[in-house]
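User: We ran a pulldown and think these components assemble together. Before we commit to crystallization trials, I'd like a predicted model of the whole complex to look at. Sequences follow.
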Amino acid sequence: MIPVAFPELAPALPEILLAVGAMALLMFGVFSGDRSSRTVSWLSVLLLILAGIVVAAGGGAERVTFFGAFVSDAFSSFAKMLILLGSVVAVLLGADQNERDGQARFEYPILILLATLGMLMMVSANDLIALYLGLELQSLALYVLAAFRRETVRSTEAGLKYFVLGALSSCMLLYGASLIYGFAGTTSFDVLATTLQQGEPAIGVIFGIVFLAAGLAFKVSAVPFHMWTPDVYEGAPTPVTAFFAVAPKVAAVALFVRVMIEPLGGLVDEWRQIIVFIAIASMVLGAFAAINQTNIKRLMAYSSIGHVGYALVGLAAGTASGVRGVLIYMAIYIFMTAGTFAIILCMRQKDRAVEGIADLAGLSRQRPLLALALAIFMFSMAGIPPLAGFFSKLYVFMAAIEAAREVPILYVLAIVGVLASVVGAYYYLRIVKIMYFDEPTEGFDRTVSGEVHAIIGVSALVTMFFFLYPAPLLTAAATAAAALVKG
Amino acid sequence: MFAVAIFLPLLAAVVAGFFGRWIGDRGAQIVTCGGLLISMLISWWMLYAIGFQQQAQTVELFTWMASGSFEVSWALRFDTLTAVMVFVVTTVSAMVHVYSVGYMSHDHSIPRFMAYLSIFTFFMLMLVTADNFVQMFFGWEGVGVASYLLIGFWYDRPSANAAAMKAFIVNRVGDFGFALGIMAIFFLFGTVSFDAVFQAAPQMAGKTFQFLGMEVDALTTACLLLFVGAMGKSAQLGLHTWLPDAMEGPTPVSALIHAATMVTAGVFMLVRLSPVFEYAPAALAVVTVVGASTAIFAATVGMTQFDIKRVIAYSTCSQLGYMFFAIGVSAYQAAIFHLMTHAFFKALLFLGAGSVIHAMSDEQDMRRMGGIWRLIPTTYAMMWIGSLALAGLPFFAGFYSKDIILEAAYGAHSGVGQYAFWLGIVAALLTAFYSWRLIFLTFHGKPRANEHVMAHVHESPPVMIGPLVVLALGAVFSGWLAYEAFVGHDHKAFWGAAIFVAERHDPLEAAHHVPGWVKLLPIFVAVAGILVAWIAYILRPGLPEATAEALRPIHRFFFNKWYFDELYDRLFVRPAFYLGRGLWKTGDGALIDGVGPDGVAAATRSLSVQASRLQSGYVYHYAFAMLIGVVVLVSWYLYARI
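Assistant: Here's a predicted model for the assembly, 1129 residues in total across the polymer chains.
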């Protein structure tokens, strides 16, 4: 027996904090019942903010622990901040909504905390095993969340679908990981990176990458592994959908980027083909399929599929500026999506939630500020300058065009992306048109809490005025990207 | 100081055009007329200073454009040729401005009209003071635009709009030639500056270059292309169709643009380029033939028209033909001489016709006039003076200039010279005939207008008669006064370096030594033409009808303007319409809309429907899609490996 030293815990402090906190809150909730759900929610927000502070305090220095399975660097810190932000939003939105629907349960924030813990572990994974652990911890919590409203058929159906398909994707991911391990002889990212650097890779490694990528693509909901997304987005309770659309997406994209760039960095020419394929498919399908939707949550599902496609354009470039583009894209995406879902939460008539796009008709006359905020988000998602969404697309396309000098296929990617965003503009602008030019229907209730309004306001302001002071985000993203793409 | 004369009309146009609402009708009239009158006085002094004191100069303003070896500066070239042109332009323009105050007094947009007139004058002055081809082209296009605006001034009349467009489009053909000519010049000489081109021209004689796949003489090609531009502006045979239609514009416009200034731009351009044309004898021969043919063609059509302004318009076309064949036989001085005298008497005739139209309550058809000479005696006298000058009766302006042209043509002793001379003689006969036909039909005989109109016939106000008198003075004396300087013994000193005639010939010297009958023949045919007109329209009023009936095919041919309009309609206008309709219906409607915006939108919608149909809701479908995705990717890599 080889004596093993006790691993350093400091790099994993945010995760440890979340794990311990989540369990403590669970106990608190169990003993005080559903009456405590509000308290638990606020404590969860506090815990998430605390974790964020710890992440920020840790800085961007690269620290490895747990025998090389866990890494904390600028890249993971950046992603963690975004994830924690998304989780805070989800807890706040959920607390408000569940209470009004009579669904106030203390498990909701706790499940989010556990999922967040899984995500933080995902983005810090430095080993295939650690990757899988984080991913499953996250996924299991999300399956439950999707079926959170267990008395409604739609919610349970969503949870079940997500679980079955998620299991399938986990199988693929595991199969891919085992193939890679079988051909490369290691699960450590660092060793993989050096091993796979040399010479022509074995066909088994390539297959491993395909399966691994398929599993990850499921998590980011990229075409053709996206099929669960519209159904789950529509069926899950709206705050959960908002959470799905924000935090797990960021985590999965960050994980995707890390896996592709770090251990598989030497094989960029191999895996780029996968990314190009799923990026094009996602952008095109996201644009076209959304046009026909009448349910705004389904529309947002297709919108998120499209957005992932755009983000993957940056990954396909495979360069530092490409990774930077992805991070900027996800950061801005969080604000736009969180704001939009907060508005969707406001869509209540006679104390019942409505989800039809047609229900937005004439919103500009009844709730001008709300309509203005949604218009800002829609214009931004369509990529219209000077809103933030324009810049997010700009940076990924710029990275692709820069890299296209050596890899001409990226020109195709950029052109398809621009064309798809034209088609996409159609359904985003249609919402604006419905709000501003259609005859009003029944107005929305005005019972939404201040937190939701605060989320809408802050997101709208960030989206609107990002162009005035983009420097902090740009430099942070650049630092994070530099941590991943060395040299 | 000279530059002031050039830019005053621009200033006046800007003030009247942009601030007309504030300064009012009267203010606009004062500003523009005042500006032009000052310009006119400066130009008189300029003519004296340059022509008789040899103060030719070039005023550099600034560099206009510089691109690689292509450099164009903005400079005003003042030599005798420019001075004569500026003199003619500003004098006639000033008279027309003043006349317009009376003629347009009932119009609703006087400031606009005055501004257009002034801006036209400015562009014309830019054209004649140009120091390089590009600047000349600027003025050239500028007068084209101003002319378009003026012809279409009464834009609520469809015929005026159509005429304006016709003038613009026909001129496009000429301008295309001109632009090609400028490019050819730049290609050959590497510069567009007049001085540099003129200096290098002798070395270029006889050189060849590739044009349209053929090896052609370089200078001849360039000159012919430039001449196409001149043909368009000066309404020479083939590109003349716009000029008669342009009579839709107000009569002062016709006097200014379509008699005295813009239509002579082509003549001016060729004279200005005499140092180049002199080395392209083949091009000069073409100019002679085209000019002489135009002279006779327009005269035959003019005989048969009934619209008083159209008769004068065809007469203008014909007289421009004289100027061109003068250039063709290298008698540039004679061409400019005729240009000047013609400007006076033709502007006089137009403004006189305007006075008649004014008196006859806007009636232009001579068949509904007659018997009014006692009612408007001053106008009547003015028309007589103009016609005498036009027909070339001794001691009137046209006599000197037309004779020297015909003598030069005869003295050229060349085939084309003889062609031009004899056609010129016949055209002179016809000119005298139609001029007096116009006078007799308009002023004599029994009144053919209705009583209502006849009751209103009145002499024009002094503001209209004044300019007529000034122009009449020019029509009477300008030939006699300017003869010695322009084409007589002093012409070398007068013109200086402005006009270049090759050493090998001296057309003016030859013109002075032609046989006596050549000098007398024009006078004889002019008198004969007047007599015939008198017999036909006063003595035996039935005669014209009978003659027209007897020579029906020929009369119809002439009356329908040699069927040029019909020919062009068939050849160009209708095919263009068909092409346009085809492009619109199939090209735009079916192809661009169908495949383009509408088609894309429809395709997007159907794609969207199909994309959402994929989403069946069944888990096994979804799982199947995922597996298919993996299989496709794996197959792709396998395929790439093998």
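The mean pLDDT of chain A is 90. That may be worth checking against your pulldown data before setting up trials.

User: Thanks, that helps.
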